[in-house]
Amino acid sequence: MDGIPSQIAAGDDTWEVAGRRFRSRLIVGTGRYKDLEETGRAIEASGAEIVTVAVRRVNLGDPKAPMLQDFVDPRRYTYLPNTAGCFTAHDAVRTLRLAREAGGWNLVKLEVLGPPPFLYPDMRATFEAAEALLKDGFEVMVYCSDDP
């Protein structure tokens, strides 16, 4: 499920997060494309190994609808479920718990947004959510600003 190629050697130019080693430092999103086919082609062309997935906006469980997994192979790419669209710590934690149940992901991207129109991170809510997620065994990458 982590999508990391087994042929990466320790001496290669790599970086590591949550015990996983990567060559590409580019992390790309799966949103904003015309359709899932275009998403898959764009990610392939990017060379990225990690893709963010807005859990609230993508189908991960309905086999009757197009699924991201059919176009972006989770055995090849590391999915980084994120909380895009969450405005409270409670919603963010709930969203990532549901993502873990759906796909088994522990490495996640946390973003808890403040009020529109600016949508800067709400750092107090982000800290609250991060604390809960860490207690639940998640490995958390945080979208944050420089000043809580």
TrEMBL record:
Domain Thiazole synthase ThiG: 17-148
Pfam families (alphabetical): ThiG
Entry EC number(s): 2.8.1.10
Source organism, top-level taxon: Bacteria
Pathway annotation from the record: Cofactor biosynthesis; thiamine diphosphate biosynthesis
Catalytic activity: [ThiS sulfur-carrier protein]-C-terminal-Gly-aminoethanethioate + 2-iminoacetate + 1-deoxy-D-xylulose 5-phosphate = [ThiS sulfur-carrier protein]-C-terminal Gly-Gly + 2-[(2R,5Z)-2-carboxy-4-methylthiazol-5(2H)-ylidene]ethyl phosphate + 2 H2O + H(+)
GO molecular function, one term: thiazole synthase activity
Biological role: Catalyzes the rearrangement of 1-deoxy-D-xylulose 5-phosphate (DXP) to produce the thiazole phosphate moiety of thiamine. Sulfur is provided by the thiocarboxylate moiety of the carrier protein ThiS. In vitro, sulfur can be provided by H(2)S.
Protein name per UniProt: thiazole synthase
Species for this entry: uncultured Acetobacteraceae bacterium
